[in-house]
Amino acid sequence: MEKDIFKDLLAKPGKNHLVSDFDSSFTGGISKQDAKEQLAKDIEKLSDLQSMLYAQDRYSILIIFQAMDAAGKDGTIKHVMSGINPQGCQVFSFKQPSTEELDHDYLWRINRCLPERGRIGIFNRSHYEDVLIAKVHPEIILSNKLPGIEKIDDIDVDFWKRRYRQINDFERYLTENGTVILKFFLNVSKAEQKKRFLERLEDKSKNWKFSSADIKERQFWDEYMKAYADVLTKTSTEVAPWYVIPADNKWFMRYAVGKIIGERIKRLNLHYPTLSKEGLEKLEKCKKKVSDINF
């Protein structure tokens, strides 16, 4: 079943993709109870793997979440990473760029937040905002103050081709230097998004999650689906593929994300550092000294 999940959820590199090619309600034949039990086990395994990742200090893990509003990014991060030691994990949420960030290239703020070796970094939204929301609302590009981009008409097909290439080159560079990149598009249906918006409006404990901007962006649903299709087609690569995670059932979404993260980190063959012969001899001397101490 796990292999089927990887097969069905992977946006295969080199292929053309539409968001509609992926079933947002897919559950892979697993029950809700089984998924919850398996997630609990995977969280424990992930905790052990993180401990070795931190001790080995050779790799870093970058987990990227992109989604439409109300797809469940925050909840997925909270549940899947619940067993992680906070000292070895960092989460960044990328909002509208600041004045300082706009005075740099669009990847500058991303570079500043990359996880160091031994750590897991989580991006709640990412550099992909610059080929998603910026593609739906190209006027955003004008604020980047780029040479040769003076008006909307200057943002042509070649501009976006360059952006996809830049992102692919950036991610290839990171992977070649020890960063494992996992990219998740949480695929929620338009009907399910509406249901969750209504829940936010009706449940006082969720009112704070609602923003009128969410309704505004929902009007551009078709444009966003096309932008996501372009991202899946142009930036799902062998070194950093996209996983399209069904998000209509939160329990399955969290299970799938946890399983994929754990399996990918496991492939690194992590282990705790071993001491040299000299190091072991020094350790034995230290043990003797501590044993001889009279308290």
From TrEMBL:
It holds the Pfam family PPK2. The keyword Signal does not apply. Keywords: Kinase, Transferase. Residues 30-266 form the Polyphosphate kinase-2-related domain. GO terms for molecular function: polyphosphate kinase activity. It comes from the Bacteria. One of its GO terms (biological process) is polyphosphate metabolic process. Gene3D superfamilies: P-loop containing nucleotide triphosphate hydrolases. SUPFAM superfamilies: P-loop containing nucleoside triphosphate hydrolases. InterPro entries: P-loop_NTPase, Polyphosphate_phosphotransfera, PPK2-rel_1, PPK2-related. Belongs to the polyphosphate kinase 2 (PPK2) family. Class I subfamily. This is Polyphosphate:nucleotide phosphotransferase, PPK2 family.
